[in-house]
Design brief:
single chain, about 240 residues, alpha/beta, 6-stranded parallel sheet, 4-stranded antiparallel sheet, 8 helices, about 20% strand, globular
Length: about 240
């Protein structure tokens, strides 16, 4: 409860660096709402004198700073699969992200900033980090031009209501598959809507609503909307090969 425990023996877990009240609570709810992540351990790291705010949902580690070596050790950051960072300020978030990158370069690190300059600075030092910057202005404009857009965005990102955006990685042993063929098969067989693809996780090669004849290569990342996550093994790739 006081955040003094040691979880250094954990592995393949999720670490959340930073406590932001209702924002963090909602974050944990969405993680638990994904059936694939429902039982994965979550370690919440915070500063100050706060006791564990979600004792039935997360393990808890507390230290004077989010980038403190003792905190990173006790939260087993070096062995985590996913790391989410949302500090009280962009400066705190940046310092925590750089420290995390120094102990775990393999985990998928997702970082939230209010200002684009901080995101660009982190990306320059840690190209593998996925930086999220507030989209409030863009969402306001889209809602003004296309009424109701906010509810579309909210539901696409929520594991708690309706169909949600998911992704999967194409196996390395598939034959030649075309986007249009896969789009039709996923809708027919799994009631899944394919809406984008990319060759890399964080590069600038994302293609939304790709042409029907677009070739899908092994290792590509597919983005789709579905009531629940599907895995590569759920798809009969042999039937899709040209």
């Amino acid at each position: 409860m006081r955040g003094l425990a040691n979880y250094k023996n954990l592995s393949d877990h999720i670490v959340i660096l930073g406590w932001s009240g209702a924002k963090t609570e909602r974050m944990v709810q969405h993680i638990r709402g994904d059936t694939a992540q429902k039982d994965r351990e979550i370690v919440l790291c915070a500063t100050g004198t706060l006791e564990n705010p979600m004792p039935d949902q997360v393990r808890y580690v507390r230290a004077p700073a989010l980038n403190a070596p003792d905190l990173l050790c006790r939260a087993a950051v070096a062995h985590a699969d996913y790391i989410i960072i949302l500090g009280e300020t962009d400066s705190e978030t940046l310092a925590a992200a750089l420290s995390v990158a120094s102990v775990n370069a393999e985990a998928h690190m997702v970082v939230y900033f209010e200002q684009r300059d901080f995101a660009d600075l982190l990306h320059a030092h840690c190209p593998h980090a996925e930086c999220n910057v507030s989209l409030s202005i863009e969402l306001m404009v889209r809602s003004a031009q296309d009424p109701g857009s906010s509810r579309v965005q909210r539901q696409l990102l929520s594991t708690l209501e309706g169909p949600t955006q998911f992704s999967l990685t194409v196996p390395n042993d598939i034959g030649e598959v075309r986007y249009g063929h896969l789009f039709a098969a996923l809708k027919t067989e799994h009631d899944v809507t394919l809406f984008g693809m990319a060759e890399t996780a964080l590069g600038d090669d994302l293609i939304l609503n790709a042409p029907s004849d677009q070739k899908i290569n092994p290792g590509a990342i597919l983005y789709f909307m579905s009531a629940q996550r599907i895995e590569p093994g759920d798809i009969d790739w042999s039937e899709l090969s040209m």
